[in-house]
Specification:
heterodimer; A: 136 residues; 2 domains; 2 helices; 45% strand; B: 293 residues; 7 helices; 6 strands
């Protein structure tokens, strides 16, 4: 199964052979194995994990909001942002989370609430990834 | 001009030449980065279009964002220029076009508004009887990012869907190559899908039993927003790349002109110097002649 992950700013993964993908679907966690039926779905902000062919370790990536498409050829993910644990900085994620929480308390317009809710989720998923990665 | 003055001129022209040369190099480096942005965006842009195409292949895609209006009355024009000058006719071509466009069309439409990205276009047009801008966005070249483009796109989208505008048009410099940029106008909202050839090509790729989660309608809604954001980002990237390319060419020309000027001045300097020496020699020899006599 070929796995491709792109964001508007760069191509993160290009046609990598994988055995399994765990993705944060907007309607719940998705587990995609080779031979999955064709599917188009939206992804929530969260952590996607993939297992490279022949390996037992899951590689995590923090995603925010995107699409996942399963075709007979493989899986492609279009995400707004995507980071590997190496790229993330704990301090920055914590700051972003704090900022979003303050903004949310101030009670803004509906559009702003949605925007900061998204920012908060993104920061949370990044922090979660940093934590789980440093444990290993 | 005295010899001393010419010496001063040569020194100052040489200084200018150094500066323009440095600016050219900086622009060349920035241009490379801006070009990378455009190239990196392509797979994503293609992915979004491909997904829309896949859905369109199995479902009738019908969405308010796709409804083309036959007689648009309320227009928003987004004018994209750079913040800084010294880049040849890059900004002038866009500004002049918009000025003429406004003159010709202001009576035709019920409402004609402008949004500026970049200081130069705004500075040029604000004193020429243009209506108050909807918004001015600065510092594009330094902070160009998808997040910024997505924010702008979202604002335009809200303005469009809430009935504020019938059409959103962009005027910008398209990046053709390092030596040529083209002024381009494009209507991004409503989205005209007939233009993208992808839609028809991919029809046979899929079996009909594609699973959608959530419903195809909801996914299309999201996707069209994404598509628009990607287009806005693309245009911004093109404009930034074009700006650096234009500046690079302008600075290259300036450097060449400076070299030519230094050559001319040096020639003049040498001629004057020789003339001075000749006069001096003549004075000495005629003095010696006079003493003999």
């Amino acid at each position: 199964m070929l796995f491709t992950l792109v964001t508007p700013e760069k191509k993160i993964i290009t046609e990598m052979e994988v055995d399994e993908i765990l993705a944060p679907g907007s309607k719940g966690q998705l587990d995609i194995l080779p031979g999955h039926s064709p599917l188009v779905t939206t992804l929530a902000t969260g952590i996607l994990k993939y297992k490279q062919k022949g390996q037992s370790k899951y590689n995590p990536i923090s995603l925010s909001w995107g699409y996942l498409e399963v075709t007979p050829q493989g899986v492609s993910v279009l995400a707004e942002t995507a980071e590997t644990p190496e790229e993330l900085e704990k301090e920055r994620a914590e700051e972003a989370l704090a900022r979003a929480q303050i903004k949310l308390k101030e009670g803004l317009t509906v559009g702003d609430i949605m925007k900061y809710q998204r920012k908060k989720q993104r920061a949370q998923s990044r922090l979660e990834l940093i934590k789980s990665y440093s444990k290993n | 001009m005295s010899l001393k003055e010419i010496r001063g001129r040569i020194a100052s022209v040489k200084n200018t030449q150094q500066i323009t040369k440095a600016m050219k190099m900086v622009s060349a480096a920035k241009l490379r980065r801006a070009q990378d942005n455009i190239i990196n965006l392509r797979p994503y842009a293609k992915g979004v279009l491909g997904l829309i195409a896949d859905i369109a292949a199995t479902h009738r895609v019908n969405h308010p964002l796709l409804h083309l209006k036959t007689n648009p009355q309320k227009i928003l024009v987004v004018v994209i220029t750079s913040d800084r000058g010294l880049c040849g006719s890059f900004n002038a071509s866009v500004s002049k076009y918009v000025e003429n466009y406004y003159k010709e069309n202001k009576d035709k439409y019920e409402q004609l508004d402008f949004l500026y990205v970049g200081r130069k276009g705004f500075d040029y047009l604000k004193n020429r009887g243009f209506p108050k801008p909807v918004d001015v966005i600065l510092n594009l070249a330094r902070e160009i990012s998808y997040t910024l483009a997505a924010n702008v796109a979202e604002r335009l989208m809200t303005a469009f869907t809430s009935g504020g505008y019938d059409e959103v048009r962009f005027v910008y410099n398209e990046f053709k190559s390092a030596i040529s940029q083209n002024r381009e106008t494009e209507t991004l909202l409503p989205i005209d899908m007939s233009q993208s050839s992808l839609i028809n090509q991919n029809e046979q790729k899929f079996s009909k039993d594609l699973i959608f989660e959530p419903s195809p309608e909801e996914i299309v809604e999201d996707l069209l927003h994404k598509h628009f954001a990607v287009q806005v980002y693309r245009i911004m990237c093109e404009s930034v790349a074009g700006e650096h390319a234009a500046r690079m060419t302008a600075m290259e020309n300036a450097t060449n002109n400076a070299v030519e000027m230094v050559n001319n001045l040096t020639l003049k300097y040498n001629k004057l110097r020789q003339a001075a020496i000749t006069t001096e020699l003549m004075e000495i020899s005629s003095g010696a002649e006079a003493l003999k006599g």
